[in-house]
Write a structure and sequence with these properties.
The chain is built from 13 helices and 14 strands. The protein has 391 residues and is an alpha/beta fold. The strands form three sheets. Strands 2-10-9-8-5-3-4 form a seven-stranded mixed β-sheet, with helices on both faces. Strands 1-13-14-12-11 form a five-stranded mixed β-sheet. A hairpin with a 4-residue loop joins strand 6 and strand 7. Helix 2 crosses helix 9 (248-264) and helix 5 (120-129) runs parallel beside helix 6 (153-162). The chain is globular. Bound molecules: pyridoxal-5'-phosphate. Pyridoxal-5'-phosphate binds at residues 14, 65-67, 92, 141, 144-145, 172, 174-175, 195, 204.
Amino acid sequence: MTLANGRQYLAIPGPSVMPDAVLQAMHRASPNIYEGELHDLTASLLPDLRAVARTQHYVAIYIGNGHAAWEAALTNTLSRGDTVLVLATGRFCIGWGEMAAKLGVNVQTIDYGNQSDIDLDQVAAALAADKGHAIKAVMAVHVDTSTSVRNDIAGLRKVLDAANHPAFLMADCIASLGCDRFEMDAWGVDVMVSACQKGLMTPPGVSFVFFNDRARAAQGDLVSHYWDWGPRAAPAGYWQHFDGTAPTHHLFGLRAALDILHGEGIEAVWARHAKLAQAIWAAFEVWGQEGPMALNIADPAKRSCAVTSVGIGPGNGDRLRHWCEHKAGLTLGIGLGRDPEDAWFRIGHMGHVNGHMIMGVLGTIEAGLVALDIPHGRGALDAAAQVIATA
Ligand SMILES: *Cc1c(COP(=O)(O)O)cnc(C)c1O
């Protein structure tokens, strides 16, 4: 038999669970795109997006997924033949670097593998060696969704400043925005990219580039008319926001999502994600006491509060995912970028998630472990409940 019939829970690291208020806001007739409500609503999104990113500076919105924002960030700031330093801690920063290479940018990569965060000393050494300041941008992913590592972005700014190096600091916050604490201006980030389908709880298809005055002055020769962030961030006419037709229903959904975030308060949103993540980690510490399961990132201080990557032994990742999906209606994330992929799985706990959902995920995983005869320590749900109980 199957117990999967009921509300499906998509616990993957994006797209995330959509709140009913977001779905309902989108369920409406096409609006007038020339004037009125849509224009006011779009104007209202910009300060609220800046507040979530903790920046006073600019935001450009693109109709496209996170990869679109990646390309926008690169082309607006870089020129063909420029050099960038890519700090890889998993699949995502490598992908961003590959995109830069294809644009004709010279990519220098420090690869920290799949289980570590960025080593700031190595970055300092690379910057010190760059005496002629050939490096135009340092590219890092705040939370790498493939490994669930969280990097010290504020620390990178300190390293750049200590080296007196003018490179832009660029951060990918696609997984972390609205989940893990991020402070664009206080941390000295010049360019930040994000997208709407993770912590921002809106269907995939809209992405953002936040940038400061220094980045705005860059004028990379790679940028084309469509990707130019200038008119998007300071449009003379409404159509310039999107260089064409607005993504009408996404904007209604995003408005509802930002209302939810601001209603809770961003500090409380971060605290909720942190507490739920601690409950997940507590369960895995116990499961890992017997058998093959282990959290990918050993140091809790370096784990994301939005996504968790787990090693579970060859084949077991796929077996567990299939069991949870077909028997219990819970979809877990694949072991993206891992070798072998089927020895890993990921839990997305970003955005519209709460205590009962996380206890449900953990309880379902426990049932799967029992059903599949995968050895595991006993008492994991107790450990998670202890954490939830202290909220
Ligand atoms: C999801 C994600 C991306 C890719 O976003 P798409 O919308 O799939 O293009 C890039 N970087 C990180 C850190 C992500 O989590």
